[in-house]
Amino acid sequence: MKPVRIGILALIAFAVLSHGAVEPWARGILEAATGILLLIWAVPFLLSKKECPIVLPPLLFPLVALALLATAQLAFRLTTSPFTTRIELQLMLSMLVLFFLAGQAFRTLADWRSFAWFVIIFAFLVAGLGILQHLTFNGKLYWFRELKYPGIPFGPYANRNHFAGFAELVLPMSLVPLLLGRVRRERLAMVGMLAIIPLSALLLSASRGGIISLAAELAFLALVLILRRTARRHLVAGGVVLLLALLTVSWLGVNQILSRFSSLQTLEVTQGKRASMRHGTWHIFLDHPVLGTGLGTLQQVYPQGPCFLAGWSLGGPVAFELACQLRAAGREVAFLGLIDAGLPEKGRLPGGASVMVPLWWAISYPFVEHIPLNYKTIRMLARWVGILLPESLGDVWRRGLAEGARFAGSLLASGWRSLRVFRANLSGFSSFQPTFFDGEVTLFRTAQGSRLDRGQDYVRASLGRWCAHVDVHEAPGSDMTLMLDPAVSSEFAKCFGATLNLASQAGVNR
What we know:
This protein is α/β, with parallel strands linked by helices.
């Protein structure tokens, strides 16, 4: 069983050091390694002539029941996301196998004592790493991994609350023997030090939930000691450890640490958002009280937000209508941008212009902008209507007649598809009736779009009737070059990105 024990301990260390094994590559390694450990245990067990009883830990049965429920959700299509449930069920089955193997590999008191020492020492090392990284933090995990999402990391975890959860799991391994008097006198100082560093790291993480949970744990242990009537001597040991942990935090500079956290409060979830999350979760439970929505599907069924929407040209009314429907469904829309777009009025553009005006702009674009009518311009016009042309017609010619025939067929098919899409857009545009949007609309308007207003600001006035406020930004180029010309698109991306960042920051602050 020794190889299985070593493998289980190695997997525990890997799961923690790989940021909780939440990334696909880490989960894949964890699941594959669990399967290998199962084979390492099963082959000698099946071939052995000695009788070796299988140990079934009592906690295994409720976990198996939960796995059976998830299997039923997947088998009978009771989950809102079969793919997510299948992926999470794979991980759950791997954890069940690992839990089962632990029951077989750790049977004797000596085995569990070695496990406890491993957890205590490993917790000490991880907590030391967390403190060191915390005090020398350069914005990266392990000083070299970029954070994909904003947050306050601690140790190997991208979220300090996750580190606090890890500390809550491992601290009892050292604290409980100390408080119950199960540590030899010659080892008291060593075990105490091994407990002080994880305890200090938990306090330094400044996780409110972690600190509250720690207080609850200590209160429970104190109650146990009082009921055992051995409180005085062992409570002194626990008090000394807690005092030394607090002194360690103070020595490391608690004021500097708390001020650094207070400067990052914009990354925290506001109290209003917490209340909204509780409300949304409770409604999900009421809608699915018995079998749930499926294992791992909370992110799919929870009403997420805020939403950031934008629509270009004829996509503007689509984005506007989507924002109205999201608001009606109770979702937060933090940003709605219309890029050189407006809302139709009785089947016509704002100001009474015909919807055929954009098509005329496309045809006359090379002449108005004094651009040479060459293949590059034709290719850009084709992209605008949804037809992709090769970079050079010579490439098609050199590939032979068969390739030319295939190109001609795909050109006709894409042309016909673009024509159908254009007709559907015109039909939807002519029958579209906007509803009032109780938020701000950001209008990005090109010089070409401004010409449509003929100095009367029809687009802005039209939007103003259907939303709470309109914020106008000037955009470079024309309706076409805004998306198709790389130079113009690059310039517009800076303006659009800055506006979007401001809206995102405002949404976080709310």
